[in-house]
C-alpha cells in the first residue's frame, strides 16, 4: 500500500500536478524546451531524444510530438531561444556609454563569451550542425540575424567614425564572429583550458586586442560615404 502521507509521495504528486497544470495552460512547448536544455547540459545534444524530454516533463511522447515534429524541431527551438538571449546580451553591451569603437567592440566580444560560458547547453546547440538546412525554421534564422546585427552595427559605426578600415562591413563582422566563436569552441572542447568563466573572458580579450587593432584604418586612408559604396557595389 502507498502511504499518501509520505513526504516523498506528496512532493511527487505535487510535481505531477504542476506539470499537468503547465500543460493545460498551454506551456508545454516551453516546458519541453526547458527540459531539453537541462538534459543537454547533462548528456549533450547528440544523446537527446524527444521521448526522454517528454518523460522529464511528465507527458506522453505523443503530446510532445504535437508541439515538435521531431528532435530537430526541438533543437531548433532551443537554438532560437539561445540566439534571442545572445542578441539581448549583445544589445545590452551595445548600450554602453563608451564611444570609442575599439572599446565598444571589445565589450561585445566579452558579452559573446560571457553568454557562451553562462549558457553552455544553449550554445552547444547554437554552434552545432545547422538545423535549418531545409528552411523549416525561419524564426531561427531571424534570431541569428538579430544577434549578428549588433556586431555588424558596431563595425559600421566604427567605419563611419573613421576608426575601422574600409571594406565590406559584413565581412569584417563575420571575422569578429568567427574569432569569438572559435575561441569559445576551443574552451568548451577543453582544447584551451581556463579556470573559470571570468578567466575565459579575460583571456579572450587578451587575444582579441591584436585582432581589433588589426581592424584599424591606415592613417593615410580616406573613406567615402557609405551610400557611395553601396552605389558602386
CATH architecture of the largest domain: Orthogonal Bundle
Fraction of residues in helices? Answer: over 70%
Q: What is the CATH topology assignment of the largest domain?
A: Tetracycline Repressor, domain 2
- Count helical runs: 11
Largest sheet: none
Number of strands: 0
Shape: elongated
Count of all domains? 2
Distance between the termini: 78 Å
Strand content: under 5%
| SS-based class | mainly alpha
Radius of gyration: 22 Å
The CATH superfamily of the largest domain is known as Tetracycline Repressor, domain 2
Order of helices and strands: HHHHHHHHHHH
**Unreliable stretches covering 5 or more consecutive residues:** 1-22, 228-233
Mean of pLDDT = 88
Given this structure, which CATH class of the largest domain is correct? Answer: Mainly Alpha
Write a structural description:
There is one protein chain. The chain has 233 residues and is mainly alpha-helical. 70% of the residues lie in helices and 0% in strands. It has helices spanning 7-24, 28-43, 50-57, 61-65, 71-94, 101-118, 120-126, 138-160, 169-188, 197-214, 226-232. Helix 5 (71-94) runs antiparallel to helix 6 (101-118), helix 5 (71-94) crosses helix 7 (120-126) and helix 8 packs across helix 9. The longest helix has 24 residues, at 71-94.
Question: Brief description of this entry?
Answer:
The protein is an all-alpha fold.
Amino acid at each position: 500500500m502507498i502511504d499518501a502521507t509520505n513526504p516523498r509521495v506528496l512532493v511527487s504528486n505535487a510535481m505531477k500536478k504542476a506539470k499537468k497544470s503547465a500543460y493545460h495552460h498551454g506551456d508545454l512547448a516551453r516546458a519541453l524546451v526547458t527540459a531539453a536544455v537541462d538534459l543537454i547540459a547533462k548528456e549533450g545534444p547528440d544523446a537527446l531524444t524527444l521521448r526522454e524530454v517528454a518523460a522529464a516533463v511528465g507527458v506522453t511522447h505523443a503530446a510532445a510530438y504535437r508541439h515538435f515534429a521531431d528532435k530537430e524541431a526541438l533543437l531548433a527551438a532551443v537554438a532560437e531561444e539561445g540566439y534571442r538571449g545572445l542578441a539581448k546580451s549583445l544589445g545590452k553591451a551595445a548600450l554602453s556609454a563608451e564611444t570609442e569603437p575599439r572599446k565598444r567592440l571589445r565589450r561585445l566580444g566579452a558579452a559573446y563569451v560571457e553568454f557562451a560560458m553562462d549558457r553552455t547547453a544553449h550554445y552547444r546547440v547554437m554552434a552545432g550542425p545547422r538545423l535549418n538546412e531545409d528552411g523549416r525554421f525561419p524564426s531561427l534564422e531571424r534570431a541569428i540575424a538579430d544577434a549578428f546585427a549588433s556586431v555588424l552595427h558596431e563595425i559600421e559605426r566604427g567605419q563611419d567614425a573613421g576608426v575601422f578600415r574600409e571594406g565590406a562591413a559584413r565581412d569584417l563582422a563575420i571575422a569578429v564572429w568567427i574569432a569569438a566563436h572559435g575561441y569559445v569552441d576551443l574552451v568548451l572542447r577543453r582544447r584551451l583550458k581556463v579556470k573559470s568563466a571570468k578567466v575565459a573572458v579575460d583571456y579572450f580579450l587578451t587575444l582579441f586586442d591584436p585582432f581589433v587593432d588589426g581592424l584599424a584604418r591606415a592613417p593615410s586612408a580616406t573613406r567615402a560615404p557609405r551610400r557611395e559604396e553601396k552605389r558602386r557595389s
